[in-house]
């Protein structure tokens, strides 16, 4: 297995994070980075700040300049805050201004914020960002869990909403028009397509699911790993 790779700023050598990353089978390359402390991909970069440094950067405005440069250079910038968050109250003059600064950089510059307790946790967080760098959002929301209610109407909505591309609202619309799940599932693709919100593409997927012969589903390695 090829180790994951990350580019770290040379000044991070003494932080302990690169050493912890190597224990996680992440290969670290050092460079003098002008933006960010860790570059994970052309899109993803992480600025690591100890709690004390974060507070200091709020008061001398470094945080805002760094956030601006980070967001203009990378599509998915992260601010990783390392240390005991309870220290903040002892270090800041005004908690409202501190949290106002955090709100500013997250909303104005789109920074994603991670909190870790120590270098070991920081390394784990970075390693997980690397392993999920290509994660994609769900193409559709997962079906609702089977209803425990005995109400027939609830069960009918659940049955219809389990069809491809059909959510609860569309299931209710189909049931209102055709009356029963059996009637809906016996419709032709053309009849389904005429229902507002279905269309030909979705109708064809529904009919393909209903008419295809069942073959035993073999779980892929990725799915089995997620379920574990």
Descriptors:
12 helices; 49% helix; 6 strands; Rossmann fold; alpha/beta; disordered C terminus; DNA polymerase, domain 1
Topology summary:
Blueprint: E1 4-9, H1 17-23, E2 26-31, E3 38-39, E4 44-50, H2 51-59, H3 62-73, E5 76-82, H4 87-91, H5 95-109, E6 112-116, H6 119-131, H7 152-161, H8 168-178, H9 181-185, H10 189-193, H11 199-211, H12 221-227
Parallel strand pairs: 1-2, 4-5, 5-6
Antiparallel strand pairs: 1-3, 3-4
Question: What can you tell me about this protein's structure?
Answer:
By secondary structure, the chain is of the alpha/beta class. The chain folds into two domains: 4-131, Rossmann fold (3-Layer(aba) Sandwich); 137-213, 5' to 3' exonuclease, C-terminal subdomain (DNA polymerase, domain 1, Orthogonal Bundle), CATH 1.10.150. Helices cover 49% and strands 14% of the residues. It has twelve helices and six strands. A six-stranded mixed β-sheet has the order 2-1-3-4-5-6, sandwiched between helices. The two termini are 21 Å apart.
Rg, rounded, reads 25 Å
- Count of alpha/pi helices: 12
Major beta-sheet overview: 6 strands, mixed
Strand content: 5-15%
Give helix % range: 40-55%
The CATH architecture classification of the largest domain is 3-Layer(aba) Sandwich
Terminus-to-terminus distance: 21 Å
Low-confidence stretches: 222-228
Domain count: the total is 2
> Could you name the CATH class of the largest domain?
Alpha Beta
Quickly give the structural class.
Answer: alpha/beta
- The largest sheet has its strands arranged as 2-1-3-4-5-6
Apparent shape: elongated
């Amino acid at each position: 297995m090829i180790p994951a790779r990350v580019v770290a700023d040379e000044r991070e050598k003494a932080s302990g994070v690169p050493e912890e990353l190597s224990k996680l089978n992440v290969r670290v390359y050092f460079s003098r980075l002008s933006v960010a402390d860790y570059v994970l991909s052309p899109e993803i970069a992480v600025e690591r700040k100890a709690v004390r440094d974060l507070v200091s950067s709020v008061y001398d405005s470094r945080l805002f300049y760094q956030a601006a440069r980070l967001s203009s250079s990378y599509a998915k910038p992260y601010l990783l805050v390392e240390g005991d968050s309870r220290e903040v109250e002892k270090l800041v003059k005004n908690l409202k201004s501190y949290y106002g600064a955090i709100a500013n950089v997250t909303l104005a510059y789109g920074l994603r914020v991670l909190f870790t307790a120590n270098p070991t946790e920081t390394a784990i967080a970075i390693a997980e960002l690397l392993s999920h760098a290509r994660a994609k959002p769900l193409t559709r929301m997962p079906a609702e869990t089977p209803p425990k209610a005995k109400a027939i109407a609830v069960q009918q909505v659940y049955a219809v909403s389990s069809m491809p591309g059909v959510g609860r609202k569309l299931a209710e619309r189909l049931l209102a028009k055709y009356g029963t799940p059996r009637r809906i599932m016996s419709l032709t693709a053309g009849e389904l397509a005429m229902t507002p919100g279905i269309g030909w593409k979705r109708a064809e997927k529904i009919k393909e699911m209903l008419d295809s012969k069942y073959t035993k589903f073999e779980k892929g390695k990725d799915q089995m790993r997620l379920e574990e």
